[in-house]
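Data deposition worksheet. Section B asks for the primary sequence of the deposited chain exactly as it was used as input, without tags or linkers unless they were present during the calculation. Section C holds the resulting structure in token form. Section D is free text for depositor observations; keep each observation to a single sentence. Incomplete worksheets are returned to the depositor.
Section A, Depositor: J.P.
Section B:
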Amino acid sequence: MLTLQARPQPIRLALPTAQTPATSPRTSPLRAIFGANRAKLLLTYVLFNVENLLRLSQPFVLGLAINDLLHESSFGLLLFVGQHVTHLLISSLRQMYDTRVYTGIYSDLATKTVVDQRGREVGLSRVAARSSLSREFVEFFENHVPLLIKSAYSVVGALVMLAFYDRVLVPICLGLLLPAVVLNRIYSRRTFELNRQLHDQLEHEVDVIDRGHEPSIRRHYDAVASWRVKLSDCEALNFGTMEVFVLGVMVLALLRTCSSLTTTPGDIFAVFRYVLMLLMGIDGVPKLVQQFSRLRDLTQRMS
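Section C:
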């Protein structure tokens, strides 16, 4: 039973004060958030790792259940039921705990951001935008660190399990890494610039609304929409290009697995579940790249 309800420590972004010279090193917001909530964040990540270990075992257990049922044995089926129920329990508890942790962190961070920025005489429009955008630092821990962990299990874990079934499949799947690295490097540079332009526009939103000039308001929201569309187009282009290489890997894996006369139906099922798991892990990389680009720009603005 989870009872960790300690009052969160205040998050300090180490902004310059009268006693702290502006040239002194500043603590990054991500590091400050983690330091103030270390125990709670580590607990949720431990639970998430257990959840992913259970998820990684599912194709193996399902393959075993299929083979056992074909041989009139129910052992594999019972094992699958136990695995699934345990995964469901851990996942549900972790999600309920996450909500309580991250809402508390954001409340503290938004308060600290507004007080610090107003104390430095930053304009109201920029403070409003930055307090809203500061939510993205919390979302990094809530959504993107788990996505990173899940992608690692999907890629590394799936490769280990594929080696268990057929080692030849490992170099076939590793062939995806080169195009993934090249494409996401290009994608990272492009999204950093697009996010910078989007955040520039958002920082003027309160001023535009305050003036109440309809053409200016229309131009502002058209500009915001334009930058979001460009970000979406960039992500779609990166995804579509990568999927061409993914298709090639799936065809080769299909030919390799089904060419063996000794492979059982359960093993074929498990192999393709692990191949798909690996591909889904690689597909999650662009989202991480874009979020890192957004946080780089936000860190520069808030420091």
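Section D:
The radius of gyration is 24 Å.
The domain at 29-302 is CATH 1.20.1560.10 (ABC transporter transmembrane region fold).
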